[in-house]
Every structure is written in C-alpha cells, then in structure tokens.
Automatic annotation (TrEMBL):
<comment type="similarity">
    <text>Belongs to the allantoicase family.</text>
</comment>
<dbReference type="Pfam" id="PF03561">
    <property type="entry name" value="Allantoicase"/>
</dbReference>
<dbReference type="InterPro" id="IPR005164">
    <property type="entry name" value="Allantoicase"/>
</dbReference>
<feature type="domain" description="Allantoicase">
    <location>
        <begin position="185"/>
        <end position="312"/>
    </location>
</feature>
<dbReference type="InterPro" id="IPR008979">
    <property type="entry name" value="Galactose-bd-like_sf"/>
</dbReference>
<keyword id="KW-0378">Hydrolase</keyword>
<dbReference type="GO" id="GO:0004037">
    <property type="term" value="F:allantoicase activity"/>
</dbReference>
<feature type="domain" description="Allantoicase">
    <location>
        <begin position="16"/>
        <end position="165"/>
    </location>
</feature>
<dbReference type="InterPro" id="IPR015908">
    <property type="entry name" value="Allantoicase_dom"/>
</dbReference>
<keyword id="KW-0659">Purine metabolism</keyword>
<protein>
    <recommendedName>
        <fullName>Probable allantoicase</fullName>
        <ecNumber>3.5.3.4</ecNumber>
    </recommendedName>
</protein>
<comment type="pathway">
    <text>Nitrogen metabolism; (S)-allantoin degradation; (S)-ureidoglycolate from allantoate (aminidohydrolase route): step 1/1.</text>
</comment>
Length: 332
C-alpha cells in the first residue's frame, strides 16, 4: 500500500458511507463494498445464489455492457487515493475497473446524480484476482459521491476512498461543535503506540460497540506513558472534554492528562493527571485559550474509546472553513 492509506476512508460504513445504487447484485450485495472489516471468506458456503462472498458480485454479462455502483461518501473531502480490493475473488473478478467522482450539495437521489458533473479519478485499469489495487489520486477538488465501474462484470470485495475530510461549514459555523471529531476534520497526527488499533478511532462518530473500535496501546514496560497528538478541526476554544473508556474494562488507563497547543506551539495544561475509571464516560468542564491541537497522555498505557472536545470555532476559523469549502467546491 502507499502513503495515502493512512488517511481516513471517506466511504467506510462506520463513517456514514452508503452504496445507494448498483446496476446488478445478483450474487452478493453491493453494501458489502463498504464493510469496515477485512474481507472474509468461508469455503463451501453455498446459498440460493451460489458461493457466499463478503463483497459485491454481479451476474455474467452477455450484452457487452459493464456494471457499476454509486456510493455516497460518509464524509465529503479531497480524495488522495482509492483501493479496489478483489480479495477472495479468484475466478470471478472483473478484468478492469475505473472510478469517477462528483460533488453535489444536499441529499441527491440516484436519478439526480445521473445528471451530475462526473470526473474520472481512476482511469480504466487492469485488475488481478484476490489482490488489493492502490491508485493514487490528485484532483484537488471536493468529492461527495463516487461511481465504481467494473468491466465487464464479476466481484469486488472492498472499495476504500482515502482522503482529507473537508467539513461543510454550514454544519459548524455559529454552533458549539466537537473540535476533535473526525467528521469535522480533526486528525491524530502522531502517537506513541498503535499496536492494537488506530488512535483515529477515538475521533469516530457514535459510541464504540466494542474495545476494538477505540484506540488501544500495547502494555508499556518502560518509559512514562502513551500519548496522541490531535490536530483539531479548526482553531477554537474548548469548553467540555469527554474521555470515554466504554468496553475497556481491564485495560483502561489509570489516568490521563490533556494539554492544549496554540498556533505558535505554546502548550497550556488543560487537565492535569485526572483519574479514569474503566468502562465509563468522563466529562469535565473548562475554558481553554484558543488552541489548534491537543496532546492526550494516558498513564501509563491502555485504551480510550472516544475523545470529545466540545467548543467554539474562532471567527477566523469560521471564515477559513467557508473559503476553503467554496474553493474546493468550485475547483479554484
């Protein structure tokens, strides 16, 4: 894989992605394309439609056409790369595939998207069976929907659309928002350890359904503690901190520390070594200075299910978000 795969998957189901239409799904459902887990396979599991696959599989075409799926990204953004994975499809994978993208405001239907201004971001490219194919993308434009085309038919296990989240300012400006939410544009830029799971998991929407859906480090045998550096969605002031250890019953940290960092790199302690309980949501009110990032230290190690930092954007941040959205929306 290439470097872009470290960016969030804008299409994954757990971030709100949805396959809203497909030309055909005779053998396996189109929705499987966006499953968050690694594709699975159990041999000799035959149902009424044949061997069951954890992916999207269409009928054999006899008309000279090709199959396609239409996908609404869970988070709008700038796409930096696409992965088309044919895992477990060995005798029934498509020979080629391509990907198109567009940006449409609101909540368009599949019929309305048919009239959108589509741009090819992955040209028609050859595929191999049972393989993940990584395609770097460099368009510099906002994307809200993608269309996956496969030629002529067959099966694809997963589609990953990695990129930089660009939040719609209409959902942020003038409101109290979660400055640490991935869907608002926040990211973990560095961390001390991600042995069991990615620290970006802390910033996902909703509640963690199990301990694997948070950030968990290896057992620390030396050194002071584990930590993660989070770039906020935009500069702002934090008013409510939530540290959630739900499902982490025997591996929650003993305590945490939160430090705010401003544009000049000045660090300000926000919460100093606060005790944590396992399997619990902890909330703390405060008023921070204007910060652009935070450092979360967990003492000495363990896992955090979710981190929420509720607060207010600065006026300059609101203007910058609006300008960026407009520029990327129109490709300027």
């Amino acid at each position: 894989m290439t470097g872009f795969t470290t960016l969030p998957d804008l299409a994954v189901r757990t971030l709100g992605g949805s396959v809203i239409a497909a030309s055909d799904e005779s053998f396996a459902a189109k929705e499987n394309l966006l499953n968050p887990w690694t594709p699975e396979f159990r041999p000799k599991t035959f149902g009424p439609k044949g061997q069951e696959y954890d992916g999207w599989e269409t009928a054999r075409r006899r008309d000279g056409g090709h199959d396609w799926t239409l996908i609404r990204l869970g988070l709008p953004g700038v796409v930096h790369g696409v992965v088309i994975d044919t895992a477990w499809f060995e005798g029934n994978y498509p020979s080629h595939a391509s990907v198109e993208a567009c940006a449409v405001d609101g909540h368009p239907s599949p019929d309305e998207l048919a009239a959108a201004d589509w741009t090819e971001i992955v040209p028609r490219s050859p595929l191999k069976g049972d393989a993940a194919h990584a395609f770097p993308v460099d368009t510099g434009r906002l994307v809200t929907h993608v269309r996956l085309n496969m030629f002529p038919d067959g099966g694809i296990a997963r589609l990953r659309v990695h990129g930089e989240v660009v939040p719609d300012p209409a959902h942020l400006t003038g409101l109290t928002v979660d400055l640490a939410a991935l869907e608002n544009g926040a990211r973990v830029t560095e961390c001390s350890n991600m042995f069991y799971s990615s620290p970006d998991n802390m910033l996902f929407p909703g509640l963690a359904r199990n301990q694997a859906e948070g950030w968990e480090t290896a057992r620390r045998r030396e050194g002071p503690d584990d930590w993660a550096l989070i770039a906020l969605a935009a500069p702002g002031t934090i008013r409510l901190v939530e540290v959630d250890t739900t499902h982490l019953k025997f591996n929650a940290p003993g305590a945490f520390t939160l430090t705010g960092i401003d544009e000049q790199g000045k660090a300000t302690p926000l919460l100093t070594r606060v005790r944590l309980q396992p399997d619990a949501r902890h909330r703390f009110r405060l008023t921070s200075p204007e910060v652009t990032s935070v450092r979360l230290d967990i003492h000495p190690d363990g896992g955090i299910a979710r981190l929420r930092l509720w607060g207010d954007l600065t006026p300059d941040a609101e203007r910058d978000l609006t300008t960026r959205w407009q520029n990327l929306r129109h490709g300027t």
